[in-house]
Amino acid sequence: MGEFASRKAVFSRSVRMAVKIAAFAYLLNVLSHFGLVAFGLLPYDLGPALVIATVLTPPVSFIVALLAYSVVGFAVYDLGVSRQRFEELSRTDMLSGLMNRRAFLDEFEKSRGPVSLLLFDIDRFKAVNDSLGHKAGDDVIVTVAAVMAAAVKGRGVLSRIGGEEFAVLLAGVTPQDAMLLAEEIRARVADASIGTVGRVFSVTVSGGMTDATADRGFSEIFSDADMALYHAKATGRNRIVHAASLIPGAGDRNRQQKASADASAARRRA
Which of 69, 168, 169, 263 is the 20 to 30 Å CA partner of 49? Predict the structure, then answer.
């Protein structure tokens, strides 16, 4: 918002502008008196008129200008804050506090070069909801999100992309480092304790990851990571599977996408 970035900035800018306006008004007033004198139109003596102009014009014009500029400035500030807040809300998942899928896709679109995509899904999340209720399910998501955020902080982009599923986008890291982070996230979640509805328990996550270049497109990269996540679920959960271990080389993209769709449906039941 530039000069209206804070209330303090608005007030400071208003004072500066009011001083300039008061000086301009005083100068204009004085020049007007001399102009009237030159044309013989001043109905009173010039000396007393200039005294009155000096005493009244600067403070009056300063106060009026300060009030007017402050009203406009604070209106602009409030509008800017509201707009920023709305934009933030439109990009934030309200339950976890992480960025939502839309914001995550925007971040992916900004990526260039090699990237790693990590997908995580909370194991047996449906059983938590069914046995302990949705309040417990919400608390699980909040706790897992906080654990992941602490692990990812400063190293990548983390999002809750839907339900009990999370995604991490890493750029400029080696596949080995991406796998190390994925394993760190998995271990941290498994070690975390969740206290809710009078119970203390822990959950695990399964993860799938893939390495690619961002120009391949999100849907293609997501399909690879999604299939890897399904295999992590199918082979015991609480583990990370790399897509490269399932599909050596590029392969048939249509076959991969169909397999990914089947995998997603099966994983949601896991």
Answer: 69
